[in-house]
Amino acid sequence: MITARAETVVVGSGPNGLMAAVMLARAGREVLLLEAGDRFGGGLRSGELTLPGRVHDLGATVMAMTLASPAFRALRLEGVEFVHPPVALAHPLDDRPAVLLHRDAARTAEGLGRDGRVWQATVGAAARAGFPLMELLLSPLGPWRATPREFARAARFGAAALLPATVLARGALRTVEGRALLAGLAAHSMLDLRSPTSAGYGLALGALAHLVGWPLVRGGSQVLADALVAELRSLGGQAVTGHRVERLDELDARTVVLDVTPRQFLAMADLPPRYRRALSRYRYGPGVFKMDWALDGPVPWRDPEVGRAATVHLGGTLEEIAVAEAEVAAGRHSMRPYVLAVQPYAADPTRGGHTLWAYCHVPNGSTADLTDAVEDQIERHAPGFRDRVLARHTMTTADLEAVNPNLVGGDIGGGLNSLAQFLRRPVWSPAPWRTPLPGVFLCSASTPPGPAVHGMGGWQAARLATQAERHAR
Ligand SMILES: Cc1cc2nc3c(=O)[nH]c(=O)nc-3n(C[C@H](O)[C@H](O)[C@H](O)COP(=O)(O)OP(=O)(O)OC[C@H]3O[C@@H](n4cnc5c(N)ncnc54)[C@H](O)[C@@H]3O)c2cc1C
User: Fold this and answer.
1) Domain shared by 305 and 397, yes or no
2) How many CB atoms are located within 10 Å of the residue 107 CB?
3) Which Pfam families does this entry report, sorted A to Z (predicted)?
4) Nearest CA owner, ligand 1 atom 12
C-alpha cells in the first residue's frame, strides 16, 4: 500500500536525516521527511524527563563535531546559539586535583606537567593544523582532495591515531593525569582501549576542544533540530512526526534517503544477496545505560574546578578505565564503570534549573539497572551528590531503542567503531551512502564518518542523490 508520496522522501529526522532533507530542499527538490517518533531530532531530542520545566537532552549535548562539520558550517542556521562552558572537560582523580581540558592547548598542557610537551606536540599540533585536517577526518573522500602539506599533517596525526589508547598512553605519556585524560577521551569510542584506533578517538576529541571548543546549544539540543525543520519548511519541504516506515514499498518516491541502521534497512527492503550478506555482517557496539537527574543545586564536586566544565569523565585512572571498558567489550558489566557525565548548567542557565545526565557502557542489549554503579562513581568525586537529587530518570538499552530504533541494543554509535568498520561502514565502497537499489541512499551514523552530530552522512547522501538525478536527465 502506498502511504507516502513525494519526489524525495527522507526517513528519520536525526541530524543526518535533517541535513539530507535540507540539502535536497535547497537543491530544489520536493522533500517529505517522515519521523517515527513524536518529536523531530533523533539524537538531538530534548524533553522534560524529570520535573516540569527541566530540559534534558535525550541524546547529544556536546556539539564539537557540529562546529567542526563542513556541512553545518555551510548551512549557516539562524536562531541557534552555541554556548561554551569555562572549561571543556574535567576528569576528577581521587588523590589530586582534576585534570582539565581547556579550549586553549597551552593552558591544558600547563596542567599536564611533564606530559604538557607531548600534548602540545600531538593534540595541540593537530588542532593548530586547523579545519582542513578536521575536514579530512570528517570526509572519507578528503585525503584524495587534500594538498600534499595537509596530507602530511594528517598522516603525522594519523600514525598515533591508529594505536590502541593504552599503548599510546603508556608509551608517550608519563603522568597519571595525562594518561587518565587520554583514556577518558578515548573511551568515547566505546571500544576496548586495547583496540587499534581507540587512541585516535581520544586525540581527535582533544584536538576538537582546542579547535572549536565543546559547546552546547542554548536551550537544549532540540533547538538545533527544530531550526533544521524550520529551514526545511521554509524551503517548501514537509515534515511529519509519528510516521514509522516499515517497508520501502510504502513509499512512492523517486529518491529515498534512509536515516536508519543496516538492521532496519534489511527489514525494510528486498536487497540483492551480496549486499544483504554484507549488511548482515555489520556489527553493533556496546549499549549504554543512561540517567538524567533534576538537582536542587550544582553537583558538590570535591574539586570545585570540575563544576566549571560541562563534560565530566568519571572512572579514575587509565588502568581503571581500561579495565572497565575491557569488561564491557567482553560482554560483562563493570561495577566500577567509566561514566560520561554532562552538566549543561555550566554553560547554559536556561534549562529550568540544575540538570545532569550520565551514561555508562554496558553490553549490547543489557537489561541491567546500573543506577547504583553510576551514582557511586559520582559520589566518589562529589560526596553528598545523592542528597542533591530531586528526581531521577533511567533508561536501559531497551528504553533507548524504544524511543529511537537506530539505537540498536542501546548502541548510541550506530555500529561498532572498530578499525574494520571505519573502512566498511556499512560496506566497503568509495560511496557507501549509495545502495544497490536505484534512488535509495543511506545517511545514518552507520555510514561514514560515523557517530556524532555533524550531519556529514546526510550531506554525502544528498550530494549523491543530486548527482544521480543529474545523470538520469
Ligand atoms: C545518550 C546519547 C548521548 C550522545 N551524546 C552525544 C554528544 O554529546 N555529542 C555528539 O556529537 N553525539 C552524541 N551522541 C551521538 C549522536 O546523537 C548520534 O551519533 C547522532 O544523533 C546520529 O544521527 P543520525 O541522524 O544518524 O541518527 P539518529 O539521531 O539516531 O536519528 C535517527 C532518527 O530516525 C528515526 N527513525 C528510525 N527508523 C525510522 C523509521 N523506520 N521510520 C521513521 N523514522 C525512523 C528515529 O526515530 C530517529 O529520530 C549521543 C547519543 C546518545 C544516544
Assistant:
1) yes
2) 14
3) NAD_binding_8
4) 452
